Amino acid sequence: MWFDNLNEKAMWSIFNDISAIPRESGNEEGIRQFLLSWAAEHDLKACTDKVGNVFIYAGGTKGKENDAPLCLQGHMDMVCVKTEDSAHDFLKDPIEIVCDGETVRAKDTSLGADNGIAMAMAMALAIDPELAHPPLELLFTVSEETGMNGANGLDGSKLESRRMINLDSEEEGIIYTGCAGGIEIDAVGKAKLKSVNKEKAAAYSLKVSGLLGGHSGGEIHKGRANAIKIVSRIMHRFPDYMISSLSGGTRRNVIPSTCCVTFVVDREDCSVIESIVSQVREEVRNEYSITDPGIDISLVRTDEIPDEAVKTKTSIAFMEALYLTVTGPQAMSAAVPGIVETSNNLAIVELADGKLTAISSTRSLIESARDECAYRVAAAYEDLGFKVSYTDAYPSWAPDPSSPLTKTVASLYKAYTKKKPVITSIHAGLECGIINSAVQGMDSISIGPNLFDVHSVNEHIMVDSAERTMGFLRYMLSRI
Q1: How far apart are CA 239 and CA 176, in angstroms?
Q2: Of 71, 234, 45, which Cα lies nearest the Cα of 165?
Q3: Which position among 28, 77, 128, 453 bears the catalytic label?
Q4: Does domain 183-394 have CATH number 3.40.50.2000?
Q5: What is the pTM of this model?
Q6: pLDDT in tens, 163-207
Q7: Which tens digit of pLDDT belongs to each residue from 64-104?
Q8: 209: which strand partners?
Q9: What's the rounded Cα separation, in Å, for the pair 457 and 108?
Q10: Long-range contacts of 156-161 (CB under 8 A, 24+ apart)
């Protein structure tokens, strides 16, 4: 197996088993049954709650049976994205893991180490025969990636723990004690169609691809391009046009790496259209030469002219709304230096079933700033007469400077690594704040190994970091 030469074979073996099970958000029944069967195989008590979260209980080892219990928490779903030429079916195909000894990644798809590695770590620790530990409660939630539904529907009565280690972070040596809250903005409007005068029309396909994409919380500050915004930037400069198809982005919490639009124009405008695309292509490549160097912008003229397309006025107005939608970091935190306070990700656009749709995801450490940013995003579409709805709102997780768990784990980390951990907040959403609300008195932190480019086909985890994190978890559990 690919993990035969790695040190933490139990952890990697479990991760391999997890990766063989399709577990896109909302399709968690397979992984849920695997977890319950695994618990039964190891004589561990397990149960679920009404939303499908899984709880696994491992008693304390000899001499620690009566210690205060500790919860190890992660989520069982993953973001599923693949390369354009991949035939992978996320409903039935296992993730194909590739390991070069230094990194673990997937072939042509996202890896799902976010958050499969949390499950693998917690499970390996729970059955380690040489590890001394207090009673452990393993909590694996559903649909974290699409609205934190598992955390929001959690049955807190199934947890005795009042200390929780969330393992959904992506940077070794950092203890997170707070995170941003979020809300999603869905704008939907009628795509009014009109017959195309084929005698005077020319048809084009404009495609932006090759972008790095990534997590809209974890990578939003890295200056990466947004494929939808590039398309709207180009078409903002066009003369009159009519959109015939539009598709961009894949997930609400993913920076869109591709966007494709087909449209018709007056043949007399062809040279202008082609010149604008050529000019913006050079501008964008220059602007993102360091942060997103793989951008490809293609314009292809096609002989297939559609019978109908979205009316010119509606097409231009919708593209202008996309152009005006704020995207990326909007404010940096004054309370937590170096952390994004507020951001928006224009995540998905689509022309389908006679409707134009634009979906954005706003995050902020401050609830009022989150909502204000969301209202600004919505305003661009409300002016078009689109129906705007706000969904999947979740609160920020406010840091607790008096947290005993933070102080204990920080002290143990320094003793184990001889390095002082960074204690901070993160712009990405974590389930800790919601779970704290469901379980009165819960004290939470979040840690994890080094993961890169999550929510993208470039997602990978560093082997040495994952194994060092396991070493620290063993040390911590034996002494906490």
Answers
A1: 49
A2: 71
A3: 77
A4: no
A5: 0.83
A6: 999 999 999 999 999 999 999 999 999 998 999 999 999 999 999
A7: 999 999 999 999 999 999 998 999 999 999 999 999 999 99
A8: 296
A9: 6
A10: 156/435, 156/438, 156/439, 156/440, 158/47, 158/49, 158/55, 159/55, 159/71, 159/439, 159/442, 160/69, 160/135, 161/68, 161/69, 161/70, 161/71, 161/137, 161/439, 161/442
Task: Identify the active-site residue in 8, 28, 144, 453.
Answer: 144
Please report, to the nearest 10 degrees, the dihedral formed by the alpha carbons of residues 298, 304, 305, 310 taken in order. Answer: -60
The residue among 118, 93, 119 whose CA lies nearest residue 108 is 93
Amino acid found at 36: L
Exposed / middle / buried, residue 417 (Cβ in 10 Å: 0-12, 13-18, 19+): middle
Q: Does residue 77 have an active-site annotation? A: yes
The pLDDT score that the predictor gives to residue 58 is 98
Alpha-carbon span 38 to 10, nearest angstrom = 13
Query: Does residue 448 contact residue 409 with C-beta atoms inside 8 Å?
Result: no
Angle, CA of 456, 436 and 366, to the nearest 5°: 65
Per the annotation, the verdict on 128 as an active-site residue is: no
User: Selecting from 3.40.630.10, 3.30.470.20, 3.20.20.70, 3.30.70.330, what CATH number does the domain 9-179+396-479 have?
Assistant: 3.40.630.10
